[in-house]
Write a structure and sequence with these properties.
- The protein has helices at 15-28, 42-45, 66-79, 110-113, 120-136, 145-155, 178-187, 206-218, 236-243, 257-266, 281-288, 299-305, 317-329, 331-344, 350-365; strands at 2-6, 35-40, 54-58, 85-88, 102-106, 139-142, 162-164, 193-197, 224-229, 249-253, 269-272, 293-296, 310-312.
- By secondary structure, the protein is an alpha/beta fold.
- The chain has a seven-stranded parallel β-sheet, with helices on both faces.
- Strand 1 (2-6), helix 1 and strand 2 (35-40) form a beta-alpha-beta unit.
Length: 370
């Protein structure tokens, strides 16, 4: 079977999508009976040029661009009689592919649920495009049941069309010596700190976390706030606003995988106060690294991490404050959470994610079986 995969976003700063693509490809490419047409920027796809079952297709066009539409049309004309199924791991699809046999992965409906935080025109256009993609797709992969339910609610899509496939968890080495971790803390001048990993959109609720940490500091608790994420030009303004709250807040950009794991390992706890998420991969990574977590009491986190985290009302600064304080001082609670975390980790595997995805792609490629 010939499977087309758009991997352009692996060259962007969309860390979650890049992590997903990086993690599933090694498992997908083990399936020698298929030929994979990896379509993307040369800086990413060339590393797969030595695989016998891979055809690399340069697609040097930014997502949602006019160039994407022109080059996409040329690609479709070239590949139309070859490809059995197209896979787009993000709902950014050139219009010419919308009448092809494709599977798409959807993460969440945050921009539509919290439309007042975003550019109105972009929200409307994004909704129309996502609706069109959802209606035309052969199958939709949702990252959680919470996301699947939101897709059904917002786009009126049949649940028979949606398949829930969880993401996996990091398989990187996470065993570091005390000396390595201490050296890491010295390198970045880290004191005792609470960690957040991700972007700085308004829906991530970072400023309520900052206010909660201010309350802790007023209590005499010497705790810093560390944010790790990708650098985006559009966040420069909000990052400056974050850093104005004091030198006890630090932002680190574009750290490599090993250093990210060290941030998880050296943090007092991980906090994720998002108002909405599709999955929340950093929470899972923190849990895997043995870092206890305080997270928003939202449907997706209850679904995925129910007994392995402390939950708070993300709209209440005081509740966030109490949850963080509880984790800082309740050692018994920490041990319970870590024990429960070991049990839920068995639910997440990149190998299983890739196997489930491949199964869907194979079925979609054999239209007569659907």
């Amino acid at each position: 079977m010939n499977i087309f995969i758009d991997v352009r976003l692996a060259s962007y700063s969309y860390q979650g999508v890049k992590t997903y693509i990086d993690s599933i490809l090694p498992y997908l490419l083990r399936e020698d009976s298929n030929t994979y047409f990896l379509c993307g920027f040369r800086d990413y796809i060339t590393k797969y040029s030595t695989y016998k079952n891979v055809k690399i297709i340069p697609f040097e066009a930014p997502i949602n661009s006019f160039k994407e539409q022109i080059l996409g049309f040329k690609l479709k004309r070239k590949l139309k009689k070859i490809i059995d199924v197209y896979f787009f791991p993000y709902p950014c699809i050139p219009f010419c592919f919308l009448n092809e046999n494709f599977v798409v992965k959807l993460y969440d409906v945050t921009p539509f649920r919290f439309f007042y935080f975003y550019n109105p025109l972009k929200v409307v256009l994004g909704f129309i495009l996502t609706l069109l993609i959802a209606k035309r797709a052969n199958k939709i992969i949702a990252v959680s049941n919470a996301t699947a339910n939101d897709i059904i609610k917002y786009f009126r899509i049949s649940n028979k069309k949606i398949i829930v496939i969880y993401c996996g968890v990091t398989e990187e080495k996470i065993s570091f010596s005390s000396a390595e971790l201490q050296q890491f803390k010295v390198k970045y001048s880290l004191n005792r700190f609470v960690l957040y990993v991700g972007n700085r959109e308004k829906t991530k609720n970072i400023f309520r976390v900052i206010e909660a940490l201010k309350l802790l500091r007023r209590d005499g608790i010497d705790i810093d706030f560390v944010i790790v994420g990708r650098f985006f030009e559009k966040y420069k303004r909000i990052d400056k606003k974050i850093l104005k709250h004091g030198s006890w807040i630090k932002i680190f950009y574009d750290v490599d995988k090993e250093e990210l794991l060290k941030f998880y390992k050296t943090a007092e706890l991980y906090v994720h106060a998002a108002l909405n998420e599709g999955f929340g991969l950093p929470v899972l990574e923190a849990i895997k690294c043995g870092c206890v977590c305080a997270v928003s009491d939202i449907k997706v986190f209850r679904e995925l991490y129910d007994n392995a985290c402390v939950f708070f009302n993300p709209y209440s600064i005081f509740d966030i404050y109490l949850s963080i304080k509880k984790l800082l001082y309740d050692d018994n609670l920490k041990e319970i959470l870590k024990k429960n975390a070991l049990e839920i980790l068995n639910n997440f595997s990149w190998e299983q994610t890739a196997k489930s995805l491949l199964n869907i792609l194979k079925k979609a490629g054999r239209r007569n079986e659907l």
